[in-house]
Amino acid sequence: MKGANTSIVIFSLLALASTFASASDPSSLQDFCVALNSTKNAAAVFVNGKFCKDPKLVTANDFFFSGLDKAGNTSNAVGSRVTPVNVDQISGLNTLGISLVRIDYAPYGGLNPPHTHPRATEVLVVTKGKLYVGFVTSNPDNRLFTKVLKTGDVFVFPVGLIHFQFNIGKTNAVAFASLSSQNPGVITIANAVFGSNSPINPDVLAKAFKLDKKLVEYLQTQF
Amino acid sequence: MKGANTSIVIFSLLALASTFASASDPSSLQDFCVALNSTKNAAAVFVNGKFCKDPKLVTANDFFFSGLDKAGNTSNAVGSRVTPVNVDQISGLNTLGISLVRIDYAPYGGLNPPHTHPRATEVLVVTKGKLYVGFVTSNPDNRLFTKVLKTGDVFVFPVGLIHFQFNIGKTNAVAFASLSSQNPGVITIANAVFGSNSPINPDVLAKAFKLDKKLVEYLQTQF
Amino acid sequence: MKGANTSIVIFSLLALASTFASASDPSSLQDFCVALNSTKNAAAVFVNGKFCKDPKLVTANDFFFSGLDKAGNTSNAVGSRVTPVNVDQISGLNTLGISLVRIDYAPYGGLNPPHTHPRATEVLVVTKGKLYVGFVTSNPDNRLFTKVLKTGDVFVFPVGLIHFQFNIGKTNAVAFASLSSQNPGVITIANAVFGSNSPINPDVLAKAFKLDKKLVEYLQTQF
Amino acid sequence: MKGANTSIVIFSLLALASTFASASDPSSLQDFCVALNSTKNAAAVFVNGKFCKDPKLVTANDFFFSGLDKAGNTSNAVGSRVTPVNVDQISGLNTLGISLVRIDYAPYGGLNPPHTHPRATEVLVVTKGKLYVGFVTSNPDNRLFTKVLKTGDVFVFPVGLIHFQFNIGKTNAVAFASLSSQNPGVITIANAVFGSNSPINPDVLAKAFKLDKKLVEYLQTQF
Amino acid sequence: MKGANTSIVIFSLLALASTFASASDPSSLQDFCVALNSTKNAAAVFVNGKFCKDPKLVTANDFFFSGLDKAGNTSNAVGSRVTPVNVDQISGLNTLGISLVRIDYAPYGGLNPPHTHPRATEVLVVTKGKLYVGFVTSNPDNRLFTKVLKTGDVFVFPVGLIHFQFNIGKTNAVAFASLSSQNPGVITIANAVFGSNSPINPDVLAKAFKLDKKLVEYLQTQF
Amino acid sequence: MKGANTSIVIFSLLALASTFASASDPSSLQDFCVALNSTKNAAAVFVNGKFCKDPKLVTANDFFFSGLDKAGNTSNAVGSRVTPVNVDQISGLNTLGISLVRIDYAPYGGLNPPHTHPRATEVLVVTKGKLYVGFVTSNPDNRLFTKVLKTGDVFVFPVGLIHFQFNIGKTNAVAFASLSSQNPGVITIANAVFGSNSPINPDVLAKAFKLDKKLVEYLQTQF
Question: What residues of E are in contact with residue A95 (Cβ under 8 Å)?
Answer without folding.
Answer: 48
